[in-house]
Amino acid sequence: MFALIDCNNFFVSCERLFRPDLEGRPVVVLSSNDGCVVSRSNEARTLGIPMGAPAFKYRQVFKAQGVVQFSGNFELYGDISQRITHLLTAITPRTEVYSVDESFLDLSQLAIADYQTWGGAVRQRLLREVGIPVSIGLAGTKTLSKLASEHAKRDSGSSGVIDLINTTPATRAAYLLNTPVKDIWGVGRRLGPRLRAQGVHDALGLSRMPPRLAGQLMGVHGRQMVAELNGTPCHRLEPFGKVRQTIMHGRMFGEDTRQFPVIEAAIASLTARAAAHLRADHLLARSAAFYLRTNRHKPGYRLVSRHLDFTTPTADTGSLTGRLVEAAGAVFNPSLDYHKADILLYGLVSEHSLQTDLFNNLDLAESEASQTRLRAFDAINDRYGRRTIRYAAEDLSAAWQPQHRHRSPHYTTAWDDIPTARIIQ
What we know:
Layout: E1 2-7, H1 10-18, E2 27-30, E3 37-40, H2 42-46, H3 59-65, E4 68-71, H4 74-91, E5 95-99, E6 102-106, H5 115-129, E7 134-139, H6 142-154, E8 161-163, H7 169-177, H8 188-197, H9 203-207, H10 211-218, H11 220-229, E9 246-257, H12 260-280, E10 283-294, E11 303-314, H13 317-331, E12 338-350, H14 364-384
Parallel strand pairs: 2-4, 7-8
Antiparallel strand pairs: 1-6, 1-7, 2-3, 5-6, 9-12, 10-11, 10-12
Helix pairs in contact: 10-11, 12-13
């Protein structure tokens, strides 16, 4: 038995947590450089503002309808997400953090007499202790619990919880019938047209598709979807804290640039963040890559990249930055207007199982000194705030930094931004 906990309009809900005056008003959260809508309140959705809408195209709508805009404050959202995860793992350690605003819970080891009541209690606890409204779908498979949570968002009579475990086949079939095929977890844009061409327009139709035909159309994934829609679980819970396979950080620049020092500062800053995540998870990278892009919405779009392999896996920020900057310099073209940079670390292994190369070129003393330095580096930043100390290359230029014209304070991650309260007698 599974529960999917899905935060409602998560980024908007995080902003409203500290701005209760915005309840009932249209609110949108924008992506890097305030480019596109990445979260919207129900009021903004009612105005016809679509997800992913370019902000510049809706500027007049925002102004005319009094839409409140926020630049993405992803440190705040990540911190609130961690608080939710901490609460959910206290309910059951069998938790899978599917995304920043969604988590699956395996309920098979919990003694639950009434799933609807249990879901309502969890929802109220999250609202009381964290302040974020959620929708909860309960079902025998992950696909059905995802479907149920989507209906819980839209069905005002559900009180935010829909139980497909203790329900009649007719009721379950009604929910499937009212789920367009494009909204089924795992279908997406690629498979949707293929299914509609077969006359399958909703989840009920897909559940009745012969497994062999589903396999022919969509492979093993299709057979699993049909089985899950019929109540047979095919997807296990991914354990909380599973070892990640890659770490990637990227940013669109605040302004396009032809200056290599700007590129170097961007690569250094993004690599520092990625390497810090490596060390926090006690991992080392065997390979790294960078990607530099021009603006894909302008003529002559270009993408350049390089992949690097390391003789010995590493999480050393200085070493990673030096290699990546050197490689970027070799392919840098001063006639291009660079718009975005991405850093990828992959081939990740545990720092506790470090394997040296065949010829044992690793200097163990130097490696130990590096680890000691990095532990001190991270300890200082953990205590006094991220980037309290940093590599000089990060400060070569600030021109690459994304623009955040409407960003809210870092209420929970910066001492200077912690809200204050006054007692009025």
